[in-house]
Amino acid sequence: MSNTKANSTQVQLAERSYDVTVYPGDLAALAADIANKVAGRAALVTSRRIHPLHGADFLAALKAAGVAIEAEDVIVVDDGERAKTMATVSAILDGLVARRHTRRSTVIALGGGVIGDLAGFAAAIFLRGIPYVQVPTTVVAMVDSAVGGKTGVDHPHGKNLIGAFHQPLLVTVHPEYLGTLDDHNRRGGLAEVIKYGVIRDSEFFSWLESGGVQAFLALDPAAVSRAVLRSCEIKAAIVSEDEFESEGGVRAHLNFGHTFGHGIEAVVLRHQLEGTEAGPVGRLKAWWSREQVHGQCIAVGMACAMDLAVRLKMISTAEVMRLEKLLLTTGLPTRIPPGVSPHHILDAMATDKKAVAGTLRFVLPTAIGSVEVRGDIPKETVLEVLIGRTDETRN
Ligand SMILES: NC(=O)c1ccc[n+]([C@@H]2O[C@H](COP(=O)([O-])OP(=O)(O)OC[C@H]3O[C@@H](n4cnc5c(N)ncnc54)[C@H](O)[C@@H]3O)[C@@H](O)[C@H]2O)c1
Ligand SMILES: [Zn+2]
Asked: Which of 316, 327, 317, 305 is nearest to 373 (CA)?
Protein backbone atom coordinates (compact mmCIF):
# COMPACT_ATOMS: atom_id res chain seq x y z
CA MET A 1 0.00 0.00 0.00
CA SER A 2 1.30 3.43 -0.79
CA ASN A 3 1.53 5.66 2.21
CA THR A 4 3.95 8.23 3.42
CA LYS A 5 3.46 7.93 7.17
CA ALA A 6 4.79 4.92 9.08
CA ASN A 7 1.72 4.82 11.30
CA SER A 8 -0.75 4.96 8.45
CA THR A 9 -2.21 2.96 5.60
CA GLN A 10 -4.54 3.96 2.80
CA VAL A 11 -7.74 2.40 1.52
CA GLN A 12 -7.48 3.15 -2.19
CA LEU A 13 -10.86 3.81 -3.74
CA ALA A 14 -10.20 6.62 -6.24
CA GLU A 15 -11.90 9.81 -5.03
CA ARG A 16 -13.20 7.98 -1.96
CA SER A 17 -9.73 6.93 -0.75
CA TYR A 18 -8.96 7.45 2.92
CA ASP A 19 -6.26 6.89 5.50
CA VAL A 20 -6.29 4.68 8.56
CA THR A 21 -3.86 6.20 11.05
CA VAL A 22 -2.77 4.96 14.47
CA TYR A 23 -1.88 7.53 17.11
CA PRO A 24 -0.39 5.73 20.11
CA GLY A 25 -0.39 8.00 23.15
CA ASP A 26 -1.32 11.07 21.13
CA LEU A 27 -4.96 12.04 21.25
CA ALA A 28 -4.09 15.63 20.32
CA ALA A 29 -2.52 14.52 17.02
CA LEU A 30 -5.49 12.27 16.34
CA ALA A 31 -7.88 15.18 16.90
CA ALA A 32 -5.73 17.44 14.72
CA ASP A 33 -5.98 14.90 11.89
CA ILE A 34 -9.77 14.97 12.20
CA ALA A 35 -9.81 18.78 12.37
CA ASN A 36 -7.86 18.95 9.11
CA LYS A 37 -10.40 16.83 7.25
CA VAL A 38 -13.68 18.10 8.72
CA ALA A 39 -14.99 21.03 6.70
CA GLY A 40 -18.01 22.27 8.68
CA ARG A 41 -19.59 21.42 12.02
CA ALA A 42 -19.36 17.99 13.60
CA ALA A 43 -21.60 15.73 15.68
CA LEU A 44 -20.16 13.03 17.91
CA VAL A 45 -22.02 9.72 18.14
CA THR A 46 -21.02 7.50 21.03
CA SER A 47 -22.51 5.07 23.54
CA ARG A 48 -23.76 5.21 27.11
CA ARG A 49 -20.90 2.94 28.07
CA ILE A 50 -18.08 4.71 26.23
CA HIS A 51 -19.18 8.29 26.89
CA PRO A 52 -18.38 8.30 30.63
CA LEU A 53 -15.03 6.59 29.95
CA HIS A 54 -13.68 8.60 27.03
CA GLY A 55 -16.30 11.12 25.85
CA ALA A 56 -15.16 14.21 27.77
CA ASP A 57 -11.46 13.82 26.89
CA PHE A 58 -12.24 13.15 23.27
CA LEU A 59 -14.59 16.13 22.96
CA ALA A 60 -12.02 18.37 24.64
CA ALA A 61 -9.33 17.15 22.22
CA LEU A 62 -11.58 17.84 19.23
CA LYS A 63 -12.38 21.34 20.47
CA ALA A 64 -8.73 22.08 21.22
CA ALA A 65 -7.87 20.99 17.67
CA GLY A 66 -10.41 23.46 16.30
CA VAL A 67 -13.29 21.14 15.33
CA ALA A 68 -16.61 23.04 15.38
CA ILE A 69 -18.45 20.95 17.95
CA GLU A 70 -20.27 21.69 21.22
CA ALA A 71 -21.42 19.49 24.10
CA GLU A 72 -24.94 19.60 22.57
CA ASP A 73 -23.59 17.92 19.43
CA VAL A 74 -22.79 14.75 21.36
CA ILE A 75 -25.40 12.07 20.63
CA VAL A 76 -25.30 9.24 23.15
CA VAL A 77 -27.08 5.96 22.32
CA ASP A 78 -26.93 2.37 23.54
CA ASP A 79 -24.50 -0.09 21.98
CA GLY A 80 -24.19 -3.87 22.03
CA GLU A 81 -25.88 -5.96 19.35
CA ARG A 82 -29.39 -5.41 20.78
CA ALA A 83 -29.08 -1.69 20.11
CA LYS A 84 -28.15 -2.16 16.45
CA THR A 85 -31.65 -1.25 15.25
CA MET A 86 -33.50 1.28 13.11
CA ALA A 87 -34.80 2.81 16.37
CA THR A 88 -31.23 3.72 17.37
CA VAL A 89 -30.53 5.11 13.90
CA SER A 90 -33.69 7.22 14.27
CA ALA A 91 -32.43 8.53 17.59
CA ILE A 92 -29.15 9.56 15.92
CA LEU A 93 -31.04 11.25 13.07
CA ASP A 94 -33.25 13.06 15.61
CA GLY A 95 -30.11 14.36 17.29
CA LEU A 96 -28.72 15.63 13.98
CA VAL A 97 -31.99 17.33 13.06
CA ALA A 98 -32.42 18.86 16.53
CA ARG A 99 -28.99 20.47 16.26
CA ARG A 100 -29.77 21.67 12.71
CA HIS A 101 -26.86 19.85 11.15
CA THR A 102 -26.41 20.40 7.44
CA ARG A 103 -24.85 18.72 4.43
CA ARG A 104 -21.57 20.29 5.45
CA SER A 105 -21.63 18.55 8.84
CA THR A 106 -19.59 15.45 9.66
CA VAL A 107 -20.52 12.60 11.98
CA ILE A 108 -17.72 11.31 14.22
CA ALA A 109 -18.29 7.80 15.56
CA LEU A 110 -16.53 6.98 18.85
CA GLY A 111 -17.15 3.37 19.78
CA GLY A 112 -17.06 -0.28 18.85
CA GLY A 113 -18.41 -1.95 15.73
CA VAL A 114 -22.00 -1.32 16.72
CA ILE A 115 -21.57 2.45 17.10
CA GLY A 116 -19.52 2.58 13.89
CA ASP A 117 -22.13 0.67 11.89
CA LEU A 118 -25.00 2.74 13.35
CA ALA A 119 -23.35 6.15 13.00
CA GLY A 120 -22.06 5.27 9.53
CA PHE A 121 -25.54 4.28 8.41
CA ALA A 122 -27.10 7.43 9.91
CA ALA A 123 -24.45 9.46 8.03
CA ALA A 124 -25.22 7.53 4.84
CA ILE A 125 -28.90 8.50 4.89
CA PHE A 126 -28.99 11.91 6.65
CA LEU A 127 -29.63 14.48 3.92
CA ARG A 128 -28.85 11.67 1.43
CA GLY A 129 -25.37 11.25 2.81
CA ILE A 130 -22.88 13.28 4.84
CA PRO A 131 -19.26 12.35 5.68
CA TYR A 132 -18.29 10.42 8.77
CA VAL A 133 -15.14 9.60 10.69
CA GLN A 134 -14.44 6.35 12.51
CA VAL A 135 -12.73 6.45 15.88
CA PRO A 136 -12.86 2.77 16.89
CA THR A 137 -12.64 1.74 20.55
CA THR A 138 -12.72 -2.08 20.34
CA VAL A 139 -10.29 -4.50 18.70
CA VAL A 140 -13.03 -5.61 16.27
CA ALA A 141 -13.68 -2.02 15.25
CA MET A 142 -9.97 -1.16 14.93
CA VAL A 143 -9.03 -4.14 12.78
CA ASP A 144 -12.25 -4.82 10.95
CA SER A 145 -15.49 -2.86 11.10
CA ALA A 146 -14.12 0.71 10.88
CA VAL A 147 -12.58 -0.06 7.49
CA GLY A 148 -14.48 -1.06 4.38
CA GLY A 149 -17.60 1.09 4.33
CA LYS A 150 -20.22 -1.46 5.33
CA THR A 151 -22.76 0.27 7.56
CA GLY A 152 -26.17 -0.77 8.81
CA VAL A 153 -28.40 -2.39 11.39
CA ASP A 154 -29.90 -5.75 12.26
CA HIS A 155 -33.47 -6.87 11.56
CA PRO A 156 -35.40 -9.25 13.84
CA HIS A 157 -34.96 -11.81 11.04
CA GLY A 158 -31.22 -11.50 10.77
CA LYS A 159 -28.01 -9.59 11.40
CA ASN A 160 -26.99 -6.70 9.15
CA LEU A 161 -30.01 -7.10 6.86
CA ILE A 162 -30.43 -3.33 6.40
CA GLY A 163 -27.62 -1.03 5.41
CA ALA A 164 -25.58 0.87 2.90
CA PHE A 165 -22.06 1.05 1.60
CA HIS A 166 -20.66 4.37 2.82
CA GLN A 167 -16.91 4.83 3.13
CA PRO A 168 -15.60 6.97 5.99
CA LEU A 169 -13.66 10.20 5.49
CA LEU A 170 -10.89 8.79 7.65
CA VAL A 171 -10.23 6.29 10.40
CA THR A 172 -8.14 7.31 13.41
CA VAL A 173 -7.05 4.78 16.01
CA HIS A 174 -6.03 5.50 19.61
CA PRO A 175 -4.71 2.14 20.92
CA GLU A 176 -5.07 3.34 24.54
CA TYR A 177 -8.87 3.06 24.22
CA LEU A 178 -8.40 -0.71 24.50
CA GLY A 179 -7.26 -0.17 28.09
CA THR A 180 -10.88 -0.08 29.27
CA LEU A 181 -12.12 -2.90 27.04
CA ASP A 182 -12.74 -6.22 28.79
CA ASP A 183 -10.51 -9.19 28.23
CA HIS A 184 -13.16 -11.32 26.49
CA ASN A 185 -13.69 -8.67 23.78
CA ARG A 186 -9.95 -8.05 23.40
CA ARG A 187 -9.27 -11.73 22.78
CA GLY A 188 -12.35 -12.11 20.57
CA GLY A 189 -11.13 -9.29 18.33
CA LEU A 190 -7.77 -11.00 17.94
CA ALA A 191 -9.51 -13.85 16.11
CA GLU A 192 -9.93 -11.46 13.16
CA VAL A 193 -6.27 -10.42 13.41
CA ILE A 194 -5.19 -14.05 13.23
CA LYS A 195 -7.55 -14.46 10.26
CA TYR A 196 -5.63 -11.80 8.31
CA GLY A 197 -2.40 -13.73 8.89
CA VAL A 198 -3.90 -16.96 7.59
CA ILE A 199 -5.48 -15.45 4.48
CA ARG A 200 -2.64 -13.15 3.39
CA ASP A 201 0.54 -12.96 5.44
CA SER A 202 2.57 -15.82 6.87
CA GLU A 203 5.19 -13.42 8.26
CA PHE A 204 2.53 -11.57 10.24
CA PHE A 205 1.21 -14.92 11.47
CA SER A 206 4.72 -15.88 12.62
CA TRP A 207 5.05 -12.56 14.45
CA LEU A 208 1.75 -13.22 16.24
CA GLU A 209 3.05 -16.69 17.18
CA SER A 210 6.36 -15.41 18.45
CA GLY A 211 5.10 -13.03 21.12
CA GLY A 212 2.98 -10.62 19.07
CA VAL A 213 -0.25 -11.82 20.65
CA GLN A 214 1.07 -11.58 24.21
CA ALA A 215 2.45 -8.10 23.54
CA PHE A 216 -0.90 -7.07 22.07
CA LEU A 217 -2.82 -8.41 25.06
CA ALA A 218 -0.43 -6.50 27.35
CA LEU A 219 -1.40 -3.45 25.23
CA ASP A 220 2.16 -2.72 24.23
CA PRO A 221 1.59 0.33 21.96
CA ALA A 222 4.04 -0.86 19.28
CA ALA A 223 2.40 -4.29 19.13
CA VAL A 224 -1.13 -2.87 19.02
CA SER A 225 -0.06 -0.44 16.29
CA ARG A 226 1.57 -3.19 14.23
CA ALA A 227 -1.39 -5.54 14.54
CA VAL A 228 -3.96 -2.84 13.76
CA LEU A 229 -2.03 -1.41 10.81
CA ARG A 230 -1.22 -4.76 9.21
CA SER A 231 -4.83 -5.91 9.65
CA CYS A 232 -6.16 -2.69 8.14
CA GLU A 233 -3.62 -2.87 5.31
CA ILE A 234 -4.78 -6.36 4.40
CA LYS A 235 -8.46 -5.46 4.68
CA ALA A 236 -7.83 -2.23 2.75
CA ALA A 237 -6.08 -4.06 -0.10
CA ILE A 238 -8.97 -6.51 -0.37
CA VAL A 239 -11.64 -3.79 -0.17
CA SER A 240 -9.78 -1.68 -2.76
CA GLU A 241 -9.92 -4.63 -5.15
CA ASP A 242 -13.52 -5.64 -4.47
CA GLU A 243 -15.40 -2.79 -2.77
CA PHE A 244 -18.93 -4.16 -3.16
CA GLU A 245 -18.26 -7.86 -2.51
CA SER A 246 -18.86 -8.98 -6.08
CA GLU A 247 -19.74 -12.55 -6.96
CA GLY A 248 -16.52 -14.54 -6.99
CA GLY A 249 -14.51 -11.50 -5.79
CA VAL A 250 -11.67 -11.47 -3.25
CA ARG A 251 -13.73 -9.80 -0.52
CA ALA A 252 -15.03 -13.31 0.17
CA HIS A 253 -11.56 -14.16 1.55
CA LEU A 254 -12.41 -12.06 4.59
CA ASN A 255 -14.97 -14.75 5.39
CA PHE A 256 -12.30 -17.30 6.27
CA GLY A 257 -13.60 -19.13 9.36
CA HIS A 258 -16.98 -17.40 8.98
CA THR A 259 -18.98 -20.10 7.15
CA PHE A 260 -18.46 -22.48 10.07
CA GLY A 261 -18.25 -19.61 12.56
CA HIS A 262 -21.60 -18.03 11.65
CA GLY A 263 -23.27 -21.44 11.94
CA ILE A 264 -21.79 -21.98 15.40
CA GLU A 265 -22.65 -18.41 16.44
CA ALA A 266 -26.27 -18.78 15.30
CA VAL A 267 -26.76 -21.94 17.37
CA VAL A 268 -24.98 -20.55 20.44
CA LEU A 269 -27.10 -17.37 20.32
CA ARG A 270 -30.27 -19.42 19.86
CA HIS A 271 -29.40 -21.43 22.97
CA GLN A 272 -28.93 -18.18 24.87
CA LEU A 273 -32.26 -16.80 23.63
CA GLU A 274 -34.18 -19.92 24.51
CA GLY A 275 -32.52 -20.00 27.90
CA THR A 276 -31.26 -23.50 27.16
CA GLU A 277 -27.75 -22.50 27.97
CA ALA A 278 -25.33 -24.69 26.10
CA GLY A 279 -22.86 -26.52 28.22
CA PRO A 280 -22.63 -27.59 31.83
CA VAL A 281 -24.84 -25.68 34.27
CA GLY A 282 -23.03 -23.26 36.54
CA ARG A 283 -20.31 -22.34 34.06
CA LEU A 284 -21.74 -18.89 33.54
CA LYS A 285 -18.35 -17.44 32.78
CA ALA A 286 -17.91 -19.78 29.82
CA TRP A 287 -17.33 -17.86 26.59
CA TRP A 288 -20.53 -19.13 25.03
CA SER A 289 -22.70 -17.44 27.66
CA ARG A 290 -21.32 -13.97 26.85
CA GLU A 291 -23.17 -11.35 24.85
CA GLN A 292 -20.44 -11.07 22.21
CA VAL A 293 -19.40 -14.48 20.92
CA HIS A 294 -18.48 -13.62 17.33
CA GLY A 295 -14.69 -13.71 17.69
CA GLN A 296 -14.78 -16.90 19.73
CA CYS A 297 -17.06 -18.60 17.17
CA ILE A 298 -14.79 -17.44 14.34
CA ALA A 299 -11.83 -18.97 16.19
CA VAL A 300 -13.58 -22.35 16.26
CA GLY A 301 -14.73 -21.76 12.67
CA MET A 302 -11.14 -21.18 11.50
CA ALA A 303 -10.06 -24.42 13.17
CA CYS A 304 -12.94 -26.22 11.38
CA ALA A 305 -11.96 -24.68 8.03
CA MET A 306 -8.38 -25.88 8.56
CA ASP A 307 -9.65 -29.39 9.35
CA LEU A 308 -11.66 -29.34 6.15
CA ALA A 309 -8.60 -28.23 4.17
CA VAL A 310 -6.66 -31.15 5.67
CA ARG A 311 -9.40 -33.58 4.65
CA LEU A 312 -9.22 -32.20 1.12
CA LYS A 313 -5.42 -32.60 1.23
CA MET A 314 -4.95 -28.88 0.64
CA ILE A 315 -2.78 -28.37 3.71
CA SER A 316 -0.87 -30.43 6.28
CA THR A 317 -1.91 -31.23 9.86
CA ALA A 318 1.17 -29.34 11.06
CA GLU A 319 -0.50 -26.10 9.88
CA VAL A 320 -3.68 -26.94 11.82
CA MET A 321 -1.56 -27.47 14.94
CA ARG A 322 0.06 -24.07 14.44
CA LEU A 323 -3.30 -22.34 14.16
CA GLU A 324 -4.69 -24.23 17.14
CA LYS A 325 -1.72 -23.35 19.28
CA LEU A 326 -1.95 -19.68 18.36
CA LEU A 327 -5.69 -19.58 19.10
CA LEU A 328 -5.14 -21.24 22.48
CA THR A 329 -2.28 -18.84 23.30
CA THR A 330 -4.68 -16.01 22.51
CA GLY A 331 -7.21 -17.48 24.94
CA LEU A 332 -9.61 -18.38 22.17
CA PRO A 333 -11.54 -21.65 21.85
CA THR A 334 -10.84 -24.25 19.18
CA ARG A 335 -13.64 -26.70 19.97
CA ILE A 336 -17.43 -26.51 19.61
CA PRO A 337 -19.04 -25.97 23.05
CA PRO A 338 -20.55 -29.05 24.66
CA GLY A 339 -24.28 -29.34 24.00
CA VAL A 340 -24.15 -27.51 20.67
CA SER A 341 -25.24 -30.01 18.04
CA PRO A 342 -23.16 -30.36 14.85
CA HIS A 343 -26.40 -31.08 12.97
CA HIS A 344 -27.91 -27.80 14.15
CA ILE A 345 -24.76 -25.98 13.12
CA LEU A 346 -24.91 -27.49 9.64
CA ASP A 347 -28.58 -26.40 9.30
CA ALA A 348 -27.69 -22.89 10.42
CA MET A 349 -24.79 -22.77 7.94
CA ALA A 350 -27.12 -23.66 5.07
CA THR A 351 -29.53 -20.82 5.90
CA ASP A 352 -26.84 -18.15 6.41
CA LYS A 353 -27.39 -15.20 4.08
CA LYS A 354 -23.94 -15.71 2.59
CA ALA A 355 -24.77 -19.26 1.48
CA VAL A 356 -25.42 -18.77 -2.25
CA ALA A 357 -28.60 -20.61 -3.28
CA GLY A 358 -28.10 -23.17 -0.55
CA THR A 359 -24.53 -23.98 -1.65
CA LEU A 360 -21.99 -23.74 1.12
CA ARG A 361 -18.85 -21.89 0.13
CA PHE A 362 -15.67 -22.20 2.09
CA VAL A 363 -12.55 -20.10 2.17
CA LEU A 364 -9.85 -22.70 2.71
CA PRO A 365 -6.11 -22.28 3.27
CA THR A 366 -3.59 -23.77 0.87
CA ALA A 367 -0.82 -22.60 3.24
CA ILE A 368 -0.60 -20.12 6.12
CA GLY A 369 -0.83 -16.91 4.12
CA SER A 370 -3.02 -17.94 1.20
CA VAL A 371 -6.56 -19.15 0.64
CA GLU A 372 -8.88 -20.45 -2.03
CA VAL A 373 -12.70 -20.46 -2.29
CA ARG A 374 -14.31 -23.88 -2.66
CA GLY A 375 -17.99 -24.56 -3.25
CA ASP A 376 -17.93 -28.24 -4.05
CA ILE A 377 -17.84 -29.78 -0.58
CA PRO A 378 -20.37 -32.52 0.22
CA LYS A 379 -22.49 -31.84 3.32
CA GLU A 380 -21.38 -35.16 4.80
CA THR A 381 -17.76 -33.99 4.80
CA VAL A 382 -18.76 -30.73 6.50
CA LEU A 383 -20.67 -32.68 9.13
CA GLU A 384 -17.69 -34.96 9.75
CA VAL A 385 -15.52 -31.90 10.37
CA LEU A 386 -18.07 -30.49 12.82
CA ILE A 387 -18.35 -33.78 14.68
CA GLY A 388 -14.57 -33.98 14.86
CA ARG A 389 -14.49 -30.55 16.54
CA THR A 390 -17.21 -31.39 19.08
CA ASP A 391 -16.34 -32.74 22.51
CA GLU A 392 -19.70 -34.27 23.13
CA THR A 393 -21.98 -35.50 20.35
CA ARG A 394 -24.95 -36.76 22.36
CA ASN A 395 -27.29 -34.26 20.65
N1 LIG B 1 -18.99 -2.94 9.12
C2 LIG B 1 -18.24 -4.00 9.07
O3 LIG B 1 -17.55 -4.28 8.08
C4 LIG B 1 -18.20 -4.91 10.26
C5 LIG B 1 -17.17 -5.85 10.40
C6 LIG B 1 -17.11 -6.62 11.57
C7 LIG B 1 -18.08 -6.44 12.55
N8 LIG B 1 -19.08 -5.52 12.37
C9 LIG B 1 -20.11 -5.33 13.38
O10 LIG B 1 -19.48 -4.89 14.58
C11 LIG B 1 -20.28 -5.28 15.68
C12 LIG B 1 -19.38 -5.85 16.76
O13 LIG B 1 -18.48 -4.87 17.15
P14 LIG B 1 -17.82 -4.87 18.60
O15 LIG B 1 -17.32 -6.20 18.90
O16 LIG B 1 -16.91 -3.71 18.64
O17 LIG B 1 -19.10 -4.68 19.54
P18 LIG B 1 -19.72 -3.42 20.33
O19 LIG B 1 -19.62 -2.19 19.54
O20 LIG B 1 -21.06 -3.83 20.80
O21 LIG B 1 -18.75 -3.32 21.59
C22 LIG B 1 -18.68 -4.39 22.48
C23 LIG B 1 -18.87 -3.91 23.92
O24 LIG B 1 -17.71 -3.21 24.33
C25 LIG B 1 -18.06 -1.94 24.86
N26 LIG B 1 -16.94 -1.06 24.54
C27 LIG B 1 -16.57 -0.60 23.34
N28 LIG B 1 -15.41 0.06 23.42
C29 LIG B 1 -15.04 0.04 24.71
C30 LIG B 1 -13.93 0.53 25.43
N31 LIG B 1 -12.92 1.15 24.82
N32 LIG B 1 -13.89 0.32 26.77
C33 LIG B 1 -14.89 -0.35 27.39
N34 LIG B 1 -15.94 -0.87 26.76
C35 LIG B 1 -16.02 -0.68 25.44
C36 LIG B 1 -19.35 -1.58 24.22
O37 LIG B 1 -20.06 -0.67 25.02
C38 LIG B 1 -20.03 -2.94 24.11
O39 LIG B 1 -20.66 -3.25 25.32
C40 LIG B 1 -21.31 -6.26 15.16
O41 LIG B 1 -22.57 -5.63 15.10
C42 LIG B 1 -20.83 -6.58 13.75
O43 LIG B 1 -21.88 -6.85 12.85
C44 LIG B 1 -19.14 -4.77 11.25
ZN1 LIG C 1 -15.90 -11.57 11.75
From this structure: 305
Confidence grade of residue 161 (pLDDT, cut at 50, 70, 90): very high
CB neighbours of 376 closer than 8 A, spacing ≥ 6? none
Residue type (1 letter), 258: H
The residue type at 255 = N
51 C-beta closer than 6 A to ligand 1? no
Q: Which of the listed ranges 280-289, 322-331, 335-344 does the model predict with the highest average pLDDT?
A: 322-331
Residue 331's region, left for phi above 0, alpha for psi from -120 to 50, else beta, is left
Query: pTM of whole model > 0.90?
Result: yes
Instruction: Please provide the distance, in angstroms rounded to a whole number, between the alpha carbons at the two ends of the chain.
Output: 48
State whether the Cα torsion 331-178-285-197 is positive or negative.
Answer: negative
**283 pLDDT above the threshold of 90:** no
84 Cβ inside 6 Å of ligand 1 = yes
Å from CA of 101 to ligand 2 middle: 33
Longest dimension (CA), the chain: 62
Instruction: Express each pLDDT in 114-136 by its tens digit.
Output: 999 999 999 999 999 999 999 99
Strand partners, 362: 374
CB-based contacts of 128, cutoff 8 Å, min separation 6: none
Name the residue among 363, 133, 387 with its Cα closest to residue 250.
363
Binding site membership of 43 for ligand 1 (Cβ less than 6 Å): no
Output the residue whose Cα is nearest ligand 1's atom 44: 145
Supply the pLDDT for residue 349.
Answer: 94
DSSP assignment of 317-339 equals: HHHHHHHHHHHHHTT---SBPTT
| Local structure of 150: helix, strand or coil | strand
Report the distance separating Cα 80 and Cα 186, nearest Å.
15
Cα 339 to Cα 346: distance, rounded to the nearest angstrom: 14
Stretch 312-318: mean pLDDT: 96
- Cβ(135) – ligand 1 distance below 6 Å: no
d(CA 363, CA 374): 6
| For ligand 1, atom 35: residue with the closest CA | 181
**Nearest ligand to the C-alpha of residue 188?**
1
